TrEMBL record:
Protein name in UniProt: MFS transporter
Species of origin: Streptomyces chiangmaiensis
Membrane-spanning ranges: 23-47, 59-79, 91-110, 116-137, 149-171, 183-199, 211-231, 243-263, 284-309, 321-339, 351-368, 380-405, 426-443, 463-481
Primary location recorded for the protein, binned into one broad class: membrane
SUPFAM superfamilies per UniProt: MFS general substrate transporter
Superkingdom: Bacteria
Membrane topology: Multi-pass membrane protein
Keywords, comma-separated and alphabetical: Antibiotic resistance, Cell membrane, Membrane, Transmembrane, Transmembrane helix, Transport
Ranges for domain Major facilitator superfamily (MFS) profile: 25-484
Protein location: Cell membrane
Amino acid sequence: MTSTESTLSSTAAGRGAGDRRRWFALAIVMTAAFMDLVDVTIVNIAIPSIQRDAGASFSQIQWITAGYALAFAAGLITGGRLGDIHGRKRLFLIGIGGFTLASALCGFAVNPEMLVASRILQGAMAALMVPQVLSIVHATFPAHERGKVFGLFGAIVGLGAVSGPLLGALLTEWNLFGLEWRPIFLINLPVGVGAFLLGRPFITESRAPRALRLDLVGVALVTLGLLMLLYPLTRGRELGWPLWGYASMAGALVVFATLVAYERRKTRLDGSPLVELSLFRVKSFAAGIAVQTVFGVGLGIFFLVWTLYMQVGLGWSALRAGLTGVPFSLAVSTAAGMSVQKLVPRFGRKVLQAGALVMGAGVLLYIWESDRYGLAIASWQMALPLVVMGVGMGLIVAPLTDAVLSEVPREHSGSASGLINTVQQMGNALGLGLVSVVFFGEIGDRLTPTQVGPAFAHAFQYALGWVAAVLAVIFLLMFALPRRPAQHMEGAEADTEKEPAGEPEPVLVP
């Protein structure tokens, strides 16, 4: 980009900061972010309905969720760079237009295969759309206003986490026009079309003065490695764990080793690798990436298994399952706010470690209650373990990014934050793949109607045992985090008016 173009971009951003229209632009990008957040949570609650109505196999319902996470993770960093190079407004509009089209394809899918393919497309379009949201905020609002804006964004995240499951449950339960689960996707159409049409006049275009180049080879290697790992995991049980599956998973390690070698070469050639390997020399960052990945695995396992346990194992309706999860969502939002504002500034890393222990205690309590009450367990009896788990999760999710970024050099903060979000989504996809092993592997292939409930309850307890083990690993990894995590990104905003170069700012995704 020429210096003239950079100046014009900065001037446009300056005009936007003094223009009331920037608040319309904020509402538009926040709506898109909300739509993505709700879409992530809304699908889980409808999975049993999709399975019944579309005749999807267990591996296909895993890919309905894992395919989205995988495509989102693989394209997240590249989506941010494309916005820096070609314009954040342009990529945002392409992303939201594609996301809306993919939602329509999901809603009108004629078979499970089409639904899986449409969900993968939806994840890829989200990877173009989501990274632009905070980049557009940076380019549109001056530093002194961003604290208020990011506070609004945090509220949107909390609202999305609470309303997603409830909205999914209501739309599934109402069976609008006899469409069963399809309205959970079709509801995106009017929202997406409206955001696309309004975004064109109200969002100001901006680019990064020094954008990094694309690393499409790196994206291809990451995607190939994950596919070679995830596909055998999801299909292996149904196919009797064939030899090619083990060969594929072993080959994934070779692909990841090739990725590391290529990224080193890419760094030497043009300094714009997909993964900035030098960041892993920072002990706290390396440990934080491990925490994000493992945490994503645990969440991926829990949310899918939890939905299947309530609706298939216990025979509850989607609405009852959605309402049962409300205490969990509220506890996460409340604890997250307290963690950042009050607890972490005073107690530092111990808050995150306490969160892992508290969440683990909630998981163990849930296992005990599920075993004690069996199929007669009531929603109110689940409230206590869910609140305990929610408090623990809230203590972790809000301050974790700042903790991971605390010792990262400021010039690499953009690359680091993009990588954090990417590995969280990759961990989520891996966790969804592992559901075949830790949940479906415990369920017999041929169950009579009377065996379904006990089998699913037993498998739920077994899977939660794995989640508890994951949280124990997270607790130990957190010893490598700084004792007093700095509010890294907030400080960055106060220190500079520059547009972020290279990668997107951190995006909170439940």
